[in-house]
Structure to design on (452 residues):
């Protein structure tokens, strides 16, 4: 009797293509595809098509190939794609348009595990009598992401639950992908000038071991759920059961944030953006944690108006909240105190000894980036994000030169990346949010005496 492909994959545990040669070949197809399309584009221009038409066509085809490969490989490849997706707002509009649909798909979808593999993972994590713990279990995944997928089920007590299962071989795939993608950083720079992918890859590499341990994720979700229990604005599903490669939590229905981005009314966008900003500012103080994966697939707008938050695999552990000096430094930039700002940045290690940079240069570098904190409310737009990306990423500009001279201490790296990612989502929403008010309430060191 011939063994079915599904059963063979389940038996070998090779649902993620994890052989190094195979995965490297898939990723290597990306630059080859770009080169081939560039040659094809030259031919089309010679036949009379305009440069604008050819460029638009090449961008659309490149985006489709890029995010199809990242999604199908799952692992680190898809995780990088999800991390990049929050920066879509920084792309020039002529580039962003063809990427937007592919990026949105990547936030919540990927080819699923076969049913036989799903049952094998459940056997390993909860024992072969796991069906007794459920009244019903849907073997078709409700969502699939970079290292795991989610199934809808009914727990033995009648609660609807989400069952998150890790792909077999996810760890091997993650590390292999991140190594290979580091070699292809130039390709992402070509697709998005000004975006330096190498630091993002390095930071992702540091977090993958934590994300592979679902017991750590379950603990983080429990901490968030306790901190926001009965909160009128933020909802976090409670954990029902957990294992090293499986988490069962209460099911959360709602409207995905990606659909609010795509077609929400201005009021819906403002509400979603304000709640997202509130989560970002308040979670370190309330839970001692920062949700460190702010792509739209991890958020829902619930029918009662609350922001639902899922997926706690990536968190920054901040038991004492956001460091107070960061708030002070931000406030000095907002108030235009150039000398005070440079002095504090030298004290904190943002400007290393021997680096020659003036106070005014540092203020010109940071000043526009803190615009959202100058007024009671701020409207985040793709145009503003693109302006910041161009200002800081253009090597011909003073800001880029100053940026290369500054140093980001390791303890601030994840906070910086998550803040940028959160702002990227706010710009995708085009939301008007009370950013300054939230900083005054929740950011240590930002408020002056009497302001809170």
């Amino acid at each position: 009797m011939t063994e079915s492909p599904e059963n063979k994959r389940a038996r070998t545990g090779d649902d993620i293509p994890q052989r190094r040669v195979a995965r490297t070949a898939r990723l290597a197809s990306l630059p080859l595809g770009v080169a081939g399309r560039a040659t094809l584009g030259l031919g089309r221009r010679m036949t009379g098509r305009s440069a604008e038409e050819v460029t638009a066509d090449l961008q659309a085809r490149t985006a489709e190939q890029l995010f199809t490969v990242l999604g199908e490989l799952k692992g680190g490849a898809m995780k990088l794609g999800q991390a990049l997706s929050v920066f879509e707002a920084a792309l020039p509009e002529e580039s962003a348009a063809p990427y937007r649909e592919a990026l949105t798909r990547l936030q919540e979808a990927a080819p699923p595990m076969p049913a036989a593999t799903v049952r094998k993972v459940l056997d390993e994590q909860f024992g072969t009598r796991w069906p007794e713990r459920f009244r019903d279990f849907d073997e078709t995944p409700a969502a699939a992401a970079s290292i795991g997928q989610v199934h809808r089920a009914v727990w033995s007590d009648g609660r609807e639950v989400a069952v998150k299962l890790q792909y077999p071989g996810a760890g091997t795939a993650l590390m292999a992908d991140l190594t290979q993608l580091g070699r292809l950083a130039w390709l992402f720079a070509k697709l998005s000038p000004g975006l330096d992918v190498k630091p993002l890859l390095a930071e992702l590499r540091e977090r993958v071991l934590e994300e592979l341990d679902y017991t750590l994720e379950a603990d983080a979700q429990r901490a968030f759920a306790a901190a926001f229990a009965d909160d009128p604005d933020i909802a976090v599903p409670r954990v029902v059961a957990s294992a090293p490669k499986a988490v069962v939590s209460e099911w959360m229905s709602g409207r995905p944030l990606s659909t609010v981005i795509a077609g929400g009314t201005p009021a819906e966008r403002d509400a979603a953006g304000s709640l997202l900003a509130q989560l970002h500012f308040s979670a370190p103080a309330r839970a001692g944690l920062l949700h460190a994966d702010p792509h739209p697939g991890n958020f829902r707008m619930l029918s009662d108006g609350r922001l639902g938050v899922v997926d706690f695999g990536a968190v920054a552990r901040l038991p004492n909240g956001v460091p107070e000096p960061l708030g002070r430094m931000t406030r000095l930039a907002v108030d235009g105190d150039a000398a005070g700002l440079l002095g504090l940045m030298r004290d904190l290690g943002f400007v290393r000894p021997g680096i020659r940079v003036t106070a005014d240069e540092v203020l010109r570098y940071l000043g526009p980036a803190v615009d959202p904190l100058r007024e009671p409310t701020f409207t985040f737009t793709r145009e503003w994000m693109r302006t910041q990306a161009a200002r800081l990423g253009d090597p011909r500009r003073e800001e880029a030169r100053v940026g290369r001279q500054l140093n980001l201490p390791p303890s601030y790296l994840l906070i910086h990346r998550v803040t940028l990612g959160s702002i990227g989502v706010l710009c995708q929403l085009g939301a008007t949010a009370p950013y300054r008010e939230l900083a005054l309430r929740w950011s240590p060191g930002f408020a002056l005496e009497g302001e809170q």
Notes: The chain has a mean pLDDT of 79.
